[in-house]
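Appendix B, record 7
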Amino acid sequence: MAYWFDRMAEIADEKYLEQIAYLKENFGFSQAHANALVMYSRGSLTSRRFDSVDDYLVQFDDVRGKTARNIFKAIMTKFPQLELVIAWNQPMLKVDGQYIFGLTVLANHLLMAPWSKDVLEKFAPRLEGFEVNKKTIRIPVDWKVDAKLLQDMAKARLVEVTKQQSSRPPRRLALISQPSCH
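Structure tokens (predicted):
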């Protein structure tokens, strides 16, 4: 852990989101692990920073906020069953406890996360011109939202989640005998 604390000391003056991006982009951290390290290095005993997506977006200028809202609007228009939540201090779409799509807003770009390497691979031809990382797609802060692309990626992720859930064996509940009340 000393190594990571040293890395965090090097970027201690950076903003929270820039620290998260640094760990994700340079060391392959997941959002959850990056958040845990950043929050711990900042002395937090809890990692929760935002109660709603609006709370999250209020810290950004109108351009970033509008792009983020339009991304979620494009997806939720087609899939209203998705729930927009804050998880790991980022806005995420989920259904039945499974994450479908996430977004991180940074100073110079946004990162979209379809929560699936397979989805990223499937849509690689349509992502030409974007920087595609292991788990994210880097887009400009003023991106003209491609609703069809977002909806298609969300649909692919929903299909993937449905297949995963249907292939799992059903849970078996242990029957516990209750003491009789005689």
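Remarks on this record: Confidence is low (pLDDT under 50) at residues 173-180. The chain is about 45% helix and 15% strand.
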